[in-house]
Amino acid sequence: MPLNKRILTGDVISNREVAEGHFLMAVKLPFAFETPLPGQFIMLRIKGKSEPFLGRPLSVYAFQRRREKVICEVLYRVVGKGTQQFSLLKFGSTVEVLGPLGRSFTIFPSEKDVILIAGGMGIAPMTYVAGHYRGSKAGSKMKMICYTGARSMDDLVALERMEVLCKTKVSTDDGSRGYHGMVTDLFKNDFPTLNIKKTVIYACGPRPMLKALAAILEDQPVICEVSLEERMACGVGVCLGCVTAIKDDRGNKQYKRVCKEGPVFNIKDIMWD
Ligand SMILES: Cc1cc2nc3c(=O)[nH]c(=O)nc-3n(C[C@H](O)[C@H](O)[C@H](O)COP(=O)(O)OP(=O)(O)OC[C@H]3O[C@@H](n4cnc5c(N)ncnc54)[C@H](O)[C@@H]3O)c2cc1C
Ligand code: FES
User: Fold this and answer.
1) Beta-carbon neighbour count of residue 98 at 10 Å?
2) Cα angle for residues 125, 52, 207 (degrees, 5° grid)
3) Ligand 1 and 58: CB distance under 6 A
């Protein structure tokens, strides 16, 4: 458990609805807050609120460290009590932030083509990965494509920032924008055109989407890391509430904590059923 991680108090500096039920929140944090690596998350909680008592895990969407100012942005969809309460926060509201937490994506400094696959709110960590690559010397010239899917065009959020960072390809389940169907099918159509030995794939989204991606990549010699969004209670490896079945080196089943050994795993190690 990262006992060295402290819960830091932050001030909400903006929290705006970017699409119906979807919010972008920026939090000013003390300088001591570590710079998150792509794929890491925070546990966010409203200071002084006893209900819900537990923080909620949210991926880092953007992060800036300037002089004495640290700003962490999260992008979230309102799905229940915790996120509903986040949506009511205003400029100056106080929150508690634990993080950055979890295992990050592997970043490749060498010449690779980067494929990002985002389902729904999976766009949040994928944007931070894209921003990280684009901000690095090697990554500024990398070929990068983001496949992003949502139920309908109203659920396609934060595309503008991604479009600045890389080429994007869009799908919707109802066909209201882009490819009509699942984002994994859109990706599958392009898969034969990839130079897979030179490609690294990162993905985040609902479990069925990641499972479908695993089926496409089965037996393919391509690097693919995925971020799982299990339900979490403590976020720091103590409660065992987030365990998932992973294959060990011999292919045997073992349970790993998504908050601690994950949320990022090699797609080939995950046992889906
Ligand atoms: C590592 C990690 C990163 C995440 N990053 C983001 C992010 O960047 N943006 C974002 O919008 N969400 C993200 N999530 C999901 C987010 O944590 C949940 O939506 C949130 O905790 C729900 O809290 P709530 O109190 O609003 O809902 P609750 O009242 O706890 O639950 C309401 C409904 O949402 C479902 N739910 C709760 N947690 C999850 C979950 N983890 N995955 C799928 N369904 C869930 C419940 O089953 C229930 O149906 C992330 C989750 C993890 C584990
Ligand atoms: S959420 Fe408690 S161990 Fe992962």
Assistant:
1) 20
2) 35
3) yes
The residues facing 128 across adjacent strands are none
Q: What is the mean pLDDT of residues 203-231?
A: 95
Q: What is the pTM of this model?
A: 0.94
Beta pairing, strands 264-266 & 223-227: antiparallel
Ligand number with the minimum distance to the CA of 40 = 1
Could you tell me if the CB of 204 is within 6 A of ligand 1? no
Pocket test for ligand 2, best of 58, 103, 231, 232 (most atoms within 8 A of CB): 232
Q: What percent of the chain has pLDDT over 90?
A: 85
Q: Calculate mean pLDDT across residues 186-215.
A: 96
The ligand 2 atom nearest the CA atom of 260? 4
Higher pLDDT, 49 or 12: 12
Spacing, Cα 230 to ligand 2 middle (Å): 9
Strand pairing class (199-204; 113-119): parallel
Domains by residue range for the chain, with CATH: 7-101 (2.40.30.10), 113-229 (3.40.50.80)
